[in-house]
Design goal:
The protein is mostly helical. It has 11 helices and 3 strands. It has 2 domains: 108 residues, no CATH class; 109 residues, no CATH class. 56% of the residues lie in helices and 6% in strands.
Length: 252
């Protein structure tokens, strides 16, 4: 950031605090408009690779070239907070944008949803998301792009299905799904598919009604699948949990 704009930012921060605003330290950076567009559609400066972000980028690019859209800043709440300003903006424009960002920073520090989200996942989501991206890139190298992409397709399709009231780090159910797992085994399914055996029971099964699983309706589908899907590999569970963690950040 230019020296004059950096000084303007410091002056505005001091002025904001004098007016009663309160925010974590802020890091401002001037970047090209193309990079602004990338981080706006990805949601973070570095994020897991997926084709859906490319689709959003093309849409945003077309809107920008048609004059229907213009990005002035991208802000990431945290401690420190991060804000990216467009290099093509004039000094007066970026001065206004910095003042606008200070309002974002005050709100995100004190709003209960933002506070809970940041306390749950930590205050350095930019670095955490970069770590997710690195692990997923390693999975692509080891397991192939198609396999990893299929898992990401499924996880991102469920990214809205989290339960923020139960938190990122929650306990597993006290009951285990042993009965349900036995009933859904491949042998059990083939047995019940035989003619005349639709209502038959496997030998050794209890006549009592099997306990329901999960024990109550579960809204956090990413958590449930990552912890209880019987055939998932470790790296697949890791992808589901990475998407879930980022969903908590974006929820507010």
């Amino acid at each position: 950031m230019s020296q004059s704009l950096e000084q303007i930012g410091l002056d505005l921060e001091e002025l904001g605090r004098g007016l009663g605003l309160d925010y974590y330290p802020l890091q401002f950076e001037e970047v090209p408009a193309s990079f602004m567009m990338e981080i706006a559609v990805y949601g973070l400066p570095v994020r897991m690779p997926h084709w859906s972000f490319g689709v959003r980028y093309i849409y945003q690019l077309v809107q920008h070239r048609m004059g229907n859209s213009r990005l002035f800043e991208v802000v990431f709440p945290g401690n420190p907070g991060r804000a990216y300003l467009a290099k093509g903006n004039s000094i007066p424009e970026n001065t206004l944008v910095i003042a606008h960002v200070l309002g974002h920073a005050d709100f995100s520090k004190h709003n209960s949803l933002f506070k809970r989200s940041q306390e749950e996942i930590g205050y350095r989501i930019v670095e955490q998301a970069a770590g997710h991206a690195q692990r997923i890139s390693a999975a692509i190298e080891e397991h192939g792009q198609q396999r990893v992409e299929r898992v990401l397709d499924a996880a991102l399709a469920l990214e809205a299905h989290v339960d923020t009231f139960k938190g990122v780090r929650r306990e597993l159910y006290s009951a285990t799904p042993a009965a349900a797992a036995a009933e859904s085994s491949g042998f059990a399914q083939r047995f019940h598919a035989l003619p005349g055996e639709g209502s038959a029971r496997l030998s050794g099964e209890s006549d009592g009604e099997a306990p329901s699983f999960p024990p109550s309706p579960e809204h956090d589908l990413l958590w449930f699948i990552a912890n209880y899907a019987p055939d998932m590999e470790g790296w697949e569970r890791d992808i589901f949990l990475a998407v879930r963690e980022e969903s908590f950040y974006f929820y507010p």
